[in-house]
Input
Amino acid sequence: MLSNMACSLIEHKRISTTIAKAKALRVYVEPIITKSKDDSTHNRRTAFSYLKSKEAVTELFRSIAPKVADRPGGYTRIIRTGYRLGDNAEMCMIELVDFNEVYTSGEKKTTTRRSRRGGSTAKATTAPAAEATEVEEAVVVEDAPAAEVVEAQSTEEVAADEAPAADEAPEASNETESEEKTEE
Output
C-alpha cells in the first residue's frame, strides 16, 4: 500500500488520504527522495526496490530531485481537509512542498549576509564581474542626480537670501512713506 501511495504521490505531486496513512507515507517516501538527490545507479535501484515502478523512479530522479536538491529535508506537507462523510475519518492532503504554486511564489529565497559596512561596495564585491559593472554604473547614475539636488538646494538658498532683501526694501519704502505722512 505504501509503495502504491508513494508512486501516486511522486507522479501526481499531491494525493488525498487519511491522516494516519499520510503520516506513514511521509516516513516511507522522504528517505527515497533524499536518495534521489544523488543520481547514481545504486540509488536508482534502491528507489526502484521501494517503489516498484519505472515511471515513478524516472519522474523522481528527473523532475523532483533537481527541485529538492538544496532542501535539507521536509519534502512533504500534510494539510488537513476535514472528515470523510462515510466513516468520519479525518482526511488530509499530502503534497510535495516544492510543487505547490500557492505556497511557493516561484522565486527562491536567497539568504543574504548583511554587513555593518557600506552597502554599495559589499554588493559590488559579491556580484559577478558582469553584474559588478552594472552596479558601478548604477552608483554613478545615482550620484549624478544627487549633485543636481545639491545645486538646486544651493540656488534655492541664494534665492531665499535675495528674497528677504527684496522684502525689506518695500518695508523701508513703507516706513519712509509713513514718516512722510506723519510729517504732513
Observations:
- The two ends are 116 Å apart (CA to CA).
